[in-house]
Amino acid sequence: MAKAVRVHQVGGPEALIYESIDLPPPGSGEVHIRQHAVGLNFIDVYYRTGLYKAPSLPFVAGNEAAGEVVSVGPGVTEFHPGDRVAYYANLGGYATERNIAADKLVRLPDHITYEQGAVLMLKGLTVWYLLHKTFKVEPGHRVLIHAAAGGIGLIACQWAKALGANVIGTVGSKAKADLALANGCDHVILYNEENFVERVKQISRNELCDVVYDGVGKTTFPGSLSCLKPRGLFVSFGNASGPVPPFALAELNNHGSLFATRPKLNDYVAKRADLIEGADTLFAAVISGKLHLPINHAYALKDAAQAHIDLESRKTTGASILKP
Ligand SMILES: NC(=O)c1ccc[n+]([C@@H]2O[C@H](COP(=O)([O-])OP(=O)(O)OC[C@H]3O[C@@H](n4cnc5c(N)ncnc54)[C@H](OP(=O)(O)O)[C@@H]3O)[C@@H](O)[C@H]2O)c1
């Protein structure tokens, strides 16, 4: 029988309940997959706490995974039993088996493991669009990446460096600083101990940054704006410390005609052609060795609550997976 981690009532990590679920045969356009690895993401925490609203209760947590096709529903021609696949999709991920719309799936190349596939589809695709679409990082750009040793952070630092940028990362501990430096950061700032704005000014000799990638939110705002050169781009893509508070648009003027955006992956992979472009680019980057995926923690799926406790208490580095 299929098992899943469901949330019946939003709340703390104890809201994650590992239990049996009924899984009907795949419907029209759906594929039944047996999952081999599930990605752990801060977004899973937002849904569990209710910061992001799930469409209904109970819901199966989780937003990215990889596995093999068991069977396909009517009308599915692109996938067949035995195919190795991975996906990003809102909710439904923390499960041993599930049904999912075929157009969410991508086929995994032979050289990409299930574990890699499970962290590439949300974390990897997010880094892909942030560095290639939201702002096109090019040689010579100076970029600031907050939470540089996190799941998104370590991939972003590696890729920004590979694109020729000068990379400044912020991190919460000395051990994380070493990790960030080993993964593409040119400079690391311990933002719990140092004034990161002053350090960015010092490191850049007051030239500041072309772009700031901020997934931390509340505690790094408005400092992130002060790290940008005139006409720089503030990319607020997450809320690990809480949402950015409402602010006056005039702040962007005061800091030098800045641009600001609050992007989300859904809008960058809504068209299947974009999803395939992103996945192909990622797989090629991993297979060529340009990107190394730091999968630093693995938990049994039934221990999802512990995984959330560790993620929220900033104990994890790089990517973490749940094993069904
Ligand atoms: N918009 C999108 O399309 C999109 C897609 C995926 C993810 N995201 C966002 O990307 C960010 C990173 O996600 P992730 O899954 O890779 O998580 P993560 O970076 O592995 O974990 C979050 C990190 O944020 C830092 N942090 C700072 N203040 C914190 C606080 N008060 N509580 C907890 N952590 C805090 C911690 O690093 P330090 O100890 O080094 O400070 C922590 O390790 C999240 O904000 C997520 O929502 C956005």
Ligands bound, unique: NADP nicotinamide-adenine-dinucleotide phosphate
**CA(first)-CA(last) distance:** 13 Å
In the residues, how many domains can be counted?
Answer: 2
Instruction: Report Rg.
Output: 20 Å
Residue share in helix: 25-40%
Count, helices:
10
Q: Mean pLDDT, as a whole number?
A: 98
Structural class: alpha/beta
- The succession of helices and strands, N to C, reads EEEHEEEEEHEHEHEHEHEHEHHEHE
CATH architecture group name of the largest domain: Alpha-Beta Complex
Largest sheet: 7 strands, mixed
Task: Explain how this protein is built.
The structure is a single chain. Strands 3, 5, 6, 7, 8, 15 and 16 form a 7-stranded mixed sheet that branches. The mean pLDDT is 98. The chain folds into 2 domains: 3-122 and 272-323, Quinone Oxidoreductase, Chain A, domain 1; 139-262, NAD(P)-binding Rossmann-like Domain (Rossmann fold, 3-Layer(aba) Sandwich). It has 10 helices and 16 strands. The chain is α/β, with parallel strands linked by helices and 324 residues long. The two termini are 13 Å apart. The protein is 30% helix and 27% strand. Bound molecules: NADP nicotinamide-adenine-dinucleotide phosphate (NAP). Residues 41-43, 122-123, 126, 147, 149-153, 171-172, 176, 215-216, 219, 237-241, 263-265, 311-312, 314, 316 line the site of NADP nicotinamide-adenine-dinucleotide phosphate.
